[in-house]
Each structure stands twice: as structure tokens, then as C-alpha cells.
């Protein structure tokens, strides 16, 4: 996991996901034991030729691959920068969300828990909502000003792999810190947009008023 710095804040999202962590650690232990047993058996039974070293190399590659996937899941974290939120759930999901699209971020309680897999992970679309969860607690909902395309399967009959969403549900191990940090970035931008909108409206009214005065003045003369 990357440390925080001035321009990048890291928010882990699986440290409190007990079912996920238990499964991942159990898988790591099983894979390690199996690789050792098979490796010893191959060392005792096979002739030490090129095929022997090839098999060992493949086994090592498999072990490193599984270990890396487990590491990514256990250390999964969202990354917040001044311009975007990088939403990440281990190797299962990743997308870059421009903060300019975030209208609201708030903590929510799920009325009905989404169905997760063996790790209790839920990554799918339901209508215009994206579930990107590793548990049903510490859930944060991001409401967007316009839909974005994400790569996640649909829960509907079409089973499409990509689609547009306007709501995103994620976990954060420190939800209060996450909400405080993202609100400090998003709210000033929205307030500036509102001020600019009011200024544009006022300018438009002033321009129309000048036009009306310009048209009325010759008639008065």
C-alpha cells in the first residue's frame, strides 16, 4: 500500500473484510503447502534435465502469480488525488473517477445486502448503480452529475460486461476520514461552479437590461 503524501491520499478498503481476509490467507497457505509437496515429489522422482527445471519454473511462476493476487486483495486501497478518485478493489476492479463528476459523497446503510462470492466481494452493476464492495459495512455512496462507463458485469438478463452508472457504492476502512477528505476537495469546486453560474446569470440579466434600455431610449426622445 502506498503512503499518503500532499497530493495523494490512500484509503484501504479490505482490512475490516474478515471473510475475504480469512479466505485469502487460507488460500495462500494451501497454495504454499501444495507447491512444496509437489516440488519435493518432483525433485525426488524426476530426472534433473531441462524438463525438470521447466516444471519447477512453471510452479514458481504459479506461486508468485497467486501470491501477487492475494497481496493486491489484502492491500486494496482507493487513492484520492486533487483531480480524481482511483477506485480499486484488489485485482477485481479499478477505475479512475474525475472528482468534477462527484456531486455528493455520503455514508449509507444497505437495506438489502448484495450477494457476494466466496470472498464476499460484490462487483456488478444494477441499473445505474455500481456495487464495488468487500463487505456490507462502512459503505459510501458516490452520486455523479453524469453517467460514466465502467467495466463490471450487469446483474440483469443481458449480462453485459460494460455499462453506464450514476451511483457507486464502495467501502472504506476509515469512512469518516474518507468523507472528510473528499468533501474538502469536492465542495469548494461545486461552490465555485455555483458562484460562476450566478455570475453568468447576473451578467445575462444585465446585458438584457442594457438592451431594453437601449431600445426604449430613442422612443422617449
Describe what you observe in this structure.
The chain has 221 residues and is an alpha+beta fold. Among the domains are: 11-75; 99-186, no CATH class. Helices cover 45% and strands 27% of the residues. It is built from three helices and nine strands; from the N terminus they run βααββββββββα. The strands form two sheets. A five-stranded mixed sheet has the order 5-8-9-7-6. A hairpin with a 3-residue loop joins β3 and β4. Keywords: Membrane, Transmembrane, Transmembrane helix.
Structural class of the secondary structure composition? Answer: alpha+beta
Shape: elongated
Terminal CA distance: 76 Å
Mean residue pLDDT? 85
Arrangement of strands in the largest sheet: 5-8-9-7-6
Count of alpha and pi helical runs: 3
Oligomer: single chain
Transmembrane segments: 23-44, 50-66
Keywords: Membrane, Transmembrane, Transmembrane helix
SSE layout:
Layout: E1 9-12, H1 18-45, H2 50-74, E2 77-80, E3 84-89, E4 93-98, E5 102-108, E6 122-126, E7 129-133, E8 139-151, E9 162-171, H3 175-220
Parallel strand pairs: 7-9
Antiparallel strand pairs: 1-2, 2-3, 3-4, 5-8, 6-7, 8-9
Helix pairs in contact: 1-2
Amino acid at each position: 500500500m502506498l503512503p499518503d503524501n500532499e497530493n495523494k491520499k490512500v484509503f484501504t478498503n479490505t482490512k475490516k473484510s474478515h471473510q475475504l481476509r480469512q479466505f485469502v490467507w487460507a488460500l495462500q497457505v494451501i497454495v504454499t503447502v501444495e507447491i512444496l509437496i509437489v516440488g519435493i515429489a518432483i525433485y525426488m522422482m524426476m530426472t534433473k534435465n531441462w524438463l525438470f527445471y521447466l516444471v519447477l519454473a512453471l510452479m514458481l511462476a504459479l506461486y508468485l502469480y497467486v501470491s501477487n493476487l492475494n497481496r493486491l486483495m489484502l492491500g486494496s486501497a482507493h487513492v484520492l488525488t486533487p483531480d480524481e478518485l482511483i477506485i480499486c478493489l484488489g485485482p477485481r476492479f479499478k477505475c479512475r473517477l474525475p472528482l468534477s463528476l462527484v456531486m455528493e459523497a455520503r455514508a449509507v446503510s444497505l437495506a438489502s445486502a448484495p450477494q457476494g462470492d466466496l470472498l464476499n466481494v460484490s462487483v456488478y452493476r444494477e441499473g445505474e448503480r455500481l456495487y464495488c464492495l468487500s463487505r456490507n459495512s462502512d459503505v459510501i455512496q458516490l452520486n455523479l452529475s453524469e453517467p460514466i462507463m465502467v467495466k463490471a458485469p450487469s446483474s440483469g438478463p443481458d449480462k453485459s460486461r460494460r455499462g453506464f452508472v450514476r451511483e457507486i457504492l464502495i467501502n472504506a476502512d476509515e469512512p469518516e476520514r474518507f468523507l472528510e477528505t473528499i468533501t474538502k476537495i469536492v465542495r469548494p469546486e461545486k461552490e465555485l461552479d455555483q458562484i460562476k453560474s450566478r455570475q453568468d446569470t447576473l451578467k445575462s440579466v444585465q446585458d438584457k437590461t442594457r438592451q431594453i434600455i437601449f431600445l426604449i431610449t430613442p422612443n422617449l426622445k
